[in-house]
Design a protein that fits this description.
This protein is about 40% helix and about 10% strand. By secondary structure, the chain is α/β, with parallel strands linked by helices. The chain has a single domain, classed as Rossmann fold (3-Layer(aba) Sandwich), CATH 3.40.50. Strands 2-1-3-4 form a 4-stranded parallel sheet, with helices on both faces. Helix 4 links the parallel strand 3 and strand 4. The protein is globular and about 40 Å long.
Amino acid sequence: MDDRLSVLFVCTGNMYRSPMAEAFFRVAVTERGLDFTTSSAGTLEGDRPIAPMALSLVRRVDPGMAAHRSRPLRADDVAGADLVLGMTREHVREVVVLVPEAWDRTFTLKELARRGSLAGPRRLDQTLTDWLVMVGAGRSRSDLLGDSDIDDISDPVGDPASLGRSVAREIKAMVGTLVELVLPG
């Protein structure tokens, strides 16, 4: 099994949810001694710092996130990623409109954790592509219309700090599930 993955996390502003997911994923994979690349982008204009609340929630695990600057989602980011994970269905739709052939490897973080948990972890002899095809079996683009508590991670921007902490816990848990499913062993 190849341990090298390129994972792209996507949210709206690339200032809160996707940078936190990037940081949590980087730490989880590094702790396992695996070779990987990870990045994040947003569907809005870029060049803004990570949100102070987000930084306070990831600084201890990934101090390098203090230098994070938001960046807009680009087609070449999507094309170069083995796996693209949006924080909401809207982000998945944006990715697939930008790069239609990315459908089979683009999910919401919660959707992939849910579907992957049902399908089972990737086997040691299974490529990521083959596992994603198995996990996505029966999936339809129309399944991702609208918003959904089942698939979407709330945007905490402008909400109380308690929601920000709750979102961080949810992202960290989903990333932990993702790592266990995608990088078994």
